[in-house]
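Reference record:
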Amino acid sequence: MSALPLHLDTPLFRTSEAYSKSGRPLWLKLDALQPSGSFKLRGVGRLCQHEVENGAGEIFCASGGNAGIAAAYAGRALGVPVTIVVPETTSVEVRLLIEATGASVLVHGAVFDEANAHAIALAEARKAAYVHPFDHPLLWDGHGTLIDEVVAKGAEFDCVIASVGGGGLMAGIVAGLQRNGLSDVPVIAVETEGAASLNASVMAGERLTLPAITSIANSLGARQVAQHVFDLPKRHPIESVTVSDADAVAACLKFADAYRILVEPACGAALAVADVHAGLLSRFENPLIEVCGGIGVSLAKLKAWQETLL
């Protein structure tokens, strides 16, 4: 087994000022180009490597899709069998993609929480490693490498815009900022309406559990963020905003036209901020958007969503 990271140092693009209503040139960190299709490989790969280095011969992970395919990719690279437990909401196409990457797929439960509990129970019963898709310090450490890479390229940025589901990406970004001496750089945390567990919790002042996920951006479909993520605004400047599903899909199509790359609405949420919340970006000169990617997308799906959301 190689100790080298499983993820790639992904490209960093800069848009023109005319790309968005913000009127700012935007740095785009293109983690949609990771081998697993999303940023998840950074942290999931790091955590899988750690488990195998410490004797794990089998890995279980629960996921709506992107963490699952990252774990499947990592397991194949590391030479250990991986089982991904997905909820019933995970599409057949995504299940097949995970299987094609080399993992076994089990369907359990109506929502992620039920799939996750089943994955934990199976791992315990088989004395296998359990890899959480968003709530583990090594996972956050791995995700933080995206900030390391931007800093290493010499790019100056004064805020980071990122989508939030369970919050692992945001936790990683904060970890990356802090270890690079950028503790004053704020993170703009974006969710779609109907999957905004962080926003609801911030507004309420307590960590809430959403009754259901109603957004099409099911990769953001954690009904509750990790406790660490809820606590982060006390230790780092974080602003929570939301966009609509229609905003997210429009941003995906605009991005596809401009850069010929498809991303999920969960990723489109972050891209939408520069248009939907253009005023929010007016105090920044060089925003950085984490283009987190996602495998649960096709041009046909984007167009179908666009039609249903009109």
Strands lie at 12-14, 27-30, 59-62, 82-86, 104-107, 129-131, 159-163, 187-192, 238-243, 287-291. The radius of gyration is 18 Å. The chain has twelve helices and ten strands. Residues 112-126 form the longest helix (15 residues).
